[in-house]
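Support reply, case 0932

Customer input (verbatim):
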Amino acid sequence: MKTLLIASALLLAHTAGAQETKPAAAPASPFTRLIWADEFDGNGPFDASRWKSEEGFVRNEEDQWYQASNTYRQNGVLVLEARIDSIPNPRYSASAPRSDWRRSRPYARYSSGSINTAGKFSFQYGRLEVRARIPAVCGAWPAIWTLGEQMEWPSNGECDVMEFYQVNGKPHILANAAWGSDRRYQAIWNSRRIPYSHFLELDPDWGEKFHTWVMDWTADYIRIYLDGELLNDIDLATTVNGALGQGKNPFRQPHYILLDLAVGGQNGGKPQPDAFPMRYEVDYVRVYGK
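Our regenerated output:
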């Protein structure tokens, strides 16, 4: 596990460029030592020593083309921006079947950003804290998540600290974990789907504000919170891979961090032209250990 000691000054409140909200009481945690962070101070490209960008069509039959230029720092926040675009697909083949969606599309109609810390930072157990403002509109699929370093998905383990997307045509916020079954690419899920209306009942202006997501991860559990509210409590005694994953527990290995803003695809819903540009804004990402 790689760790990077961060100056204690990063523990100070980070507010530049981010709308202030009254934070809820943080849940108790055994993890109090800051071991890695990105405060996204200033303006310009994201820090390539901490993050790398995904490129092209990547997953879930999503409509966007990922490219680094859609992710940047502006006034102290990281912006992942989805735009209406027209990007030629260099892998396009007129003979490719429609099911081969990465090759059957001549163009990408949208562009967006996705970055991760693979090969640059990972952690095993601790608290991941992210303060962000998400585009809560149909067609948007923003996420905060982690993936295990070893094995093929889903036997490597996936933890979705935050997803926003459409379930049966209605917006939801999700908190999930996935691990491997006996069949390739078939995951076993522990998923909590909370209707977006729940958060609007708490605050009609919820979508205009920044909020804090927390993942507390020990050898025994993963607990996911949003503004202090427990969304999911995952018992790691149950997250054991099937035969393809050698019966291992993928949440007892180092994981790396991903931030992305997908468009459409299997769960995002139909994008509406007046929703663009979509902006997923991240105030900070912090990781604490013991």
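We compared this against your earlier run and they match. Two observations from our side: Helices lie at 101-104, 196-202. Residues 30-289 form a domain with the Jelly Rolls fold (CATH 2.60.120.200). Please reopen the case if you see a mismatch on your end.
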